[in-house]
Specification:
It contains 4 helices and no strands. It is mostly helical.
Length: about 150
């Protein structure tokens, strides 16, 4: 329960830090003050953040799974005392390597998921603000016809 609370706290802190990213990056107080070039640059950065977060999550989860398998096999090898398989030392080495891979994979996944979420939110917000620069907007017109006679 403490770990879950800690992860939620970290996610909330990173979200609040990135809530007004444009003020620290471009020195404006309102996102409507950004021009098209700045928004396009922010869109590219957001897309890179999404791709990096996705890659870190996928690679981290894969490394974590490999680490779990190695750790469990290493624990199983500790009980084998024959000299052909290496015995306790081989099992301890394998379980320590598995634990190391689990830790690295878990950290990469823990970093990748917030990057993925924050990057996607940033891309969505920038896309909304880029609409005002597009010339394809629909402007409804009202036409009246007055019957004569």
């Amino acid at each position: 329960m403490k770990k879950l609370f800690f992860y939620v706290l970290i996610l909330m802190a990173s979200s609040s830090i990135n809530a007004q990213w444009y003020s620290s990056q471009y020195g404006v107080t309102n996102m409507n003050e950004l021009n098209k070039e700045q928004l396009t640059l922010a869109l590219d950065q957001g897309n890179k953040m999404v791709k990096g977060g996705t890659a870190a999550t996928i690679v981290g989860a894969s490394v974590f799974i490999v680490g779990v398998v190695m750790y469990s096999q290493g624990l199983g090898d500790i009980g084998i005392t024959t000299n052909s398989s290496g015995g306790i030392e081989f099992g301890l080495g394998k379980s320590m390597m598995g634990f190391t891979l689990m830790t690295i994979g878990g950290l990469a996944t823990t970093i990748g998921i917030p990057l993925w979420i924050i990057g996607k939110q940033r891309v969505d917000v920038v896309n909304i603000h880029l609409v005002k620069f597009s010339n394809t907007g629909f402007i409804p017109t009202i036409s009246f016809s007055i019957p004569i006679g």
